[in-house]
Structure prediction request, 375 residues.
Amino acid sequence: MSDKLVMSTGNKAVAAAVKMAQPTVVAAYPITPQTEVIEAIADYVESGEMTARYIPVESEHSAMTACIGAAITGVRVFTATSSHGLLYMHEMLHWAAGARLPIVMGQVNRTIAPGWNIWAEHSDSLSQRDTGWLQIYVSTVQEAYDATLMAFRIAEDNRVLLPVMINMDGFLLSHIMQPFEMTEPGDFIPPIHLPHAIDVNDPHGYGAMSPANVHYQFRFDMEKSMRAAREVIAETEAEFAKRFGRSYAPVEEYRCEDADVVIVAMGTMGKEAEVAADLLREEGVKAGVMRIRWLRPFPELNIAGKELVVIDRDYSFGFGGVIAGEIQARYPEAKIARVIAGLGGQEVTFEDMAEFVRSRKIGTEFWFGIPEEEQ
Prediction:
């Protein structure tokens, strides 16, 4: 197993990890800011570095449909999309998860129109959080690469057999150049074995209908696998750390041991928040950061005795920030100051985050950039 340090964008790092995983089929439709992922994979296929069948379909709905058709035969499958493309896939996301197909998808977070905007926001993937897909949010080019490698192993584990969505912030990570170690996974990703794969040499009858007396059992089976995914994720990340020396967890904690107040965020904003915590510590504020990586399955949070400043790069209209709401639902006694910031690529610096902590009001929601008298 050799590592090679290279410079890459987040998009190309995901494509490089897919090349290492060697899927049999890749079906995708290009959409900004995801296009670079598919362009790089197409180049790999054309040059012979990948032996995958690359299917350039006419739409994202067709892309996921093609992935489903390929995956049901028991082969490894990958796709990528963003924003409106993800929404166009919505129907087939349910099909992929309900059919228990371990499809891996790179998803580049971008806001939803109108107004038209191509910059980072998490509303696209969060609107799909109930489809049955595992979801991870990454913050560096290295993490995008590593998470993609691990996603294949996690999805294809027979205790899981659910699709995985790897989310990274559009432009803020997808197009940013950072150094990362290109790892040859070797046997870290074992051969795929789908127990219910269609086999022309062993024909069976398949029925698409599930009557009322069994349908709920299928749904509960998905939930059991989502619960089992917690253990599979932990095992996979531990094995990855043992082999390659890079450690991950469902929630990355920074200076939280003695923290009185913790910033909670996802993606690049969660990494930026670490600088805010350092600044606040210099001011005498015991601040820490929890960066949620795995949103589905939802992780355990060590928040007892701490105040939370939850920064949502999303919004559920008529309800509030999605992440703050999910934390409050899981931990009803949590003391949360809710902040809506970064929508549509709005700039949010570590100085801004530090100010969110200084001016926090527990039990309230604050929209960054909107005058307080209008909120």
Observations:
- The first strand starts at residue 3 and ends at 8.
- The domain at 251-374 is CATH 3.40.50.920 (Rossmann fold).
- The radius of gyration is 21 Å.
- The chain has two domains: 3-244, 251-374.
